[in-house]
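so the lab meeting is tmrw and i was supposed to have these ready like two days ago... anyway. pasting both below. for each one the top line is the aa sequence and the line under it is the structure tokens. i havent really looked at them closely yet so no promises
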Amino acid sequence: MMTSKRRTAKRRPSSSRQVFDPFVALADPTRRRLLELLRDGERSVQDLAGDFDVTRSAISQHLRVLRDTDLVEEHRMGRHRLYRIRAAALREVFAWIKQYEQFWDARIDQLQDVLNVEADREKHRA
């Protein structure tokens, strides 16, 4: 009787782990810079890569992360892949950050009150 050996697929280590959290994607300065470059409209990978001192492949990997988190979208035009910002995903990020605006406004107001008190004390000492 012949026994069969079950082959298991070897897992290759991933050079870029998948990121689906837009805040993790935005934590990288290269990806933030890519979004800045895309503010004015869609651009190709080749065009974007010209603004960096890394390979076009590295820029493609960063764009893939931005695409996987829905921060950018890609479409093909001939041989070129063009990328543009997805405003809807950025609105979600903005909405999350905006909820802290009141917190920081209150803290800044408190700091201003303290500084005004100190400034008044200085005037009275002089």
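ok protien two:
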Amino acid sequence: MNRTMHWLRPATSLKKHWRLIASGIVLFCSLTAGVACVSGTHAAQTPAAPYPHTLAQVTFAVAGDVIPHEAVKDAAKAAGPGADGWAALFSQVSDVFERADFGFVNMETPVAPEHTHGTKPFMFDALPELITGLKQSGVKIVSFANNHVFDQGQPGFAETREHLREQGMLFAGSGDTAALAWQPVIVEKNGIKVGFLGMTRWLNGNRNPEKDDEPHVNFFPYPDDNASGAPGMDAAGVLEAVKQARAKCDFLVVSIHWGVEYATAPKPVDVDMAHKMLDAGATVIVGHHPHVLQPVESYKTQDGRDALIFFSLGNFLSNQAREYRLGQADKEGDPRDELMGEFSAVRKDYGPGGVKVELANVGILPVWGENNRNELGSTTKIPVIRPVLMDREIPRLQAQIDELNKAENPTGAQKQELSAATTELKVLGYRRRLLLERTGSTFLVPPPAIAAKP
């Protein structure tokens, strides 16, 4: 009896006992991450995302100089009517722009049919169809700050900017007044404010108007190379403009027309200035003008940010080095070695460390400026000038060669096709190796997969 009474507790005592047990269970649950106690059962909860984690991103694709040489215009006409012809010239690379939120090129020409003085070597002009073709190809912003912006005079400069506005194309590096020109283009995407600031260090001897309240291009001259004495911004003023631009956005891209034509390395003063602009608040610098590729540099800013410099992306669409053949001096092909760059602005949550917008997803894609000038009049009469992705063309050519080699009794046409494909494959393989020796392969990425046909 005594033993039984020792096992059976009075009702009030039992209630107190179970309250203590329940309290212990609650305490255990509160200390156990990811486990919920409901009616005496354990149910898994979604664990909190580890820090840092990405909240949003904006993507970019950038390329170099678009120059409407007369042969390029002929190729556009042969490819299709009006803007469709220009878009056809970019058709092999347009998906790189299209998968990005912002595609960018340097538009190295006025678009001024109403004020044209004509074209000749080193003096360019184009029709508005060029802008439309760029838009159709995924380009959303261009630089209109380079040494050719005044090729059609001040009226042509103003007209070009009107055509850009009419077609909804963003443009950096020029404005309705001197002060407005140095204001960044600010766009917001996915909650991230992106700024674009453009400038040129060359003006082909031309200059901005005397009155500051008239349209201006952002001119940042080299002190020792400004033979015309044209007024412009000095280094201190540029760095202040970068600081002011960065204060208005989360992520600043600087486009700059600089360097020495056909030089494969940047000027030391430009390397120094690039670092200073990044320390002043820029995150990416996109360079153009040399018409050949220069190195790509990653840079850690004084405040600890990761930053990037494309010193020169080379040409993107031009008629330069039109007669290059395999076996010529390497430098003869340099103007046809090109690069497309990719990067992202990523907003990350660092928890107690706060939220930051950072550079991420840097990539480079080797490009070759295809030009059939050597075949015109012999095997074809249709001019073809266009940028192509090397890492897409090389596998295609290899597959074509493999298929042609299967023929037991090849026809004359098949032999000719095999010879042409073999030569083209050798050219691309050789130029790709030279290109990556110049730029480095650290950021090399594959081209977009070609969408399957329905």
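from a quick look at the 2nd one: Residues 49 and 349 are 10 Å apart (CA to CA). The domain at 53-371 is CATH 3.60.21.10 (Purple Acid Phosphatase; chain A, domain 2). will dig more after coffe
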